[in-house]
Amino acid sequence: MSRKAERIEPYTALVVQPEVTVVEDRAGIKKNLDRVCNMIHFGVGYFWEQPVRLVVLPEYFMQGVGTPGKGESTIKDQMDKVVTIPGPETDQLAAIAKEYDLYIVAGGVCEEIPEFPDRWFNTNFIIGPDGDIVLKYHKWHIPAYIGLGTSPHDMFDEYCAKLGGDIKDLFPVVDTPIGKLGTMTCHDGCTPEVSRALGYNGVEVICHPGAIQEVEGVSEPWDFWMFTRRTRAHDNMCYLLGSHWGKVHYAYYPKAFCPGNSFAIDYTGMVLRHTPYPEEQVLAVGIDIEALRHHRTKTIHNCWVDVRTEGFRQIYEKPIYPPNRFPSGKPPRSLSDKVSICKEVFDDIYARGQFTPPAGYAPDEISALLDKRIKYAQDTGRLKKS
């Protein structure tokens, strides 16, 4: 006879929205780390009646990152401030996790790993109440036009050989006394695949660090950060806790570059809490895993029991953004390295008739248009050359 599930009592989760400073080296991390630690101390103390068991921190909260233009980060800039996990920075968070019996989800950390020391990965990790790292995830969907870190997909064969290529290796979920926890990062949530993989692996709470820019539409009226993540929560019938920067300090950014808008969304896609402003804040939300589990026993609006997979296989039979383009010895060194690969993607999408070109263009001319834009941007200081 199979073992019956044990009851999980409701608890409080914190979504931390700090000010972030873009640092130049590893020594500069301490200011950012000290700040989020104090905000955790605040939230745990303030919401004492239903104890805090889970904390979510935003992407790049330790180190920050520079986007296209004069402040663009190259691989050298980021390698000057990479950390190892575990390491002294994670030890500082681990001490708080042990003190308060917490799971802390830290996001978008620029990590150097021993298997591939010539590059950095955009890494999320979860620290358990005993202070140990119980899950580590490397961001999968790093946007080619703005994300420099290495995705496992960029060196897919090597990565899978050394770190595992099963769906549970690439998109891990950890079963804990507060539910099944998983994580995805920023652009991962813009398309369905990563959250669907987490859902397939049983996730009940998606902890979602982000650093999404206002120039891309964080706030109303577009607000794609919110409506796409509500969909991810609804599709997988799970909580989704989205943590974002409250404000940033960097010579080349407006302070509201990533303007808050952290949120907590329940397993029906309903927004429970939201910070619609670019300031520091700590959101607290009640998590009821038993209510989620009861919801999943119903067939109405059950987004898994009705999934019929056979008709969709052709979408994924052939690569779209090609794998293995940044193997060992060839890490992405600037943003133009990654976005240049999109020329091949455009050629394929237009050749098969999925996209129709604008008037006056033939399908095989779109990649040349992108190439022209890249060269102009490099020549005028808008993008750095490799």
Structure, explained:
- The protein is α/β, with parallel strands linked by helices and 386 residues long.
- The protein folds into 2 domains: 11-296, Nitrilase/N-carbamoyl-D-aminoacid amidohydrolase (4-Layer Sandwich), CATH 3.60.110.10; 310-379, no CATH class.
- The protein is 29% helix and 21% strand.
- It is built from 12 helices and 14 strands.
- The chain has helices spanning 29-46, 75-79, 88-100, 156-163, 167-170, 193-200, 224-236, 289-296, 313-317, 335-339, 342-351, 366-379; strands at 11-17, 19-21, 52-56, 103-113, 116-127, 133-138, 173-176, 179-183, 205-209, 239-243, 247-249, 263-265, 271-274, 281-287.
- The strands form 3 sheets. The chain has a 6-stranded mixed sheet. A 6-stranded mixed sheet has the order 7-8-9-10-12-13, with helices on one face. Strands 2-11 form a two-stranded parallel ribbon.
- A hairpin with a 5-residue loop joins β5 (116-127) and β6 (133-138).
- It is globular and about 60 Å long.
- It starts with 10 loop residues before the first strand and ends in a 7-residue tail after the last helix.
Average residue-wise pLDDT: 96
**Helix amount:** 25-40%
Q: What is the succession of H and E elements?
A: EEHEHHEEEHHEEHEHEEEEEHHHHH
Radius of gyration, whole Å: 21 Å
CATH class of the largest domain: Alpha Beta
CATH level-four homologous superfamily name of the largest domain:
Carbon-nitrogen hydrolase
By CATH, the architecture of the largest domain is named 4-Layer Sandwich
How many β-strands, per DSSP?
14
General form: globular
- Into which percentage range does the β-strand content fall? 15-25%
Number of domains: 2
Q: Helices and strands: which structural class? A: alpha/beta
User: Main beta sheet, described?
Assistant: 6 strands, mixed
* Annotated CATH topology of the largest domain: Nitrilase/N-carbamoyl-D-aminoacid amidohydrolase
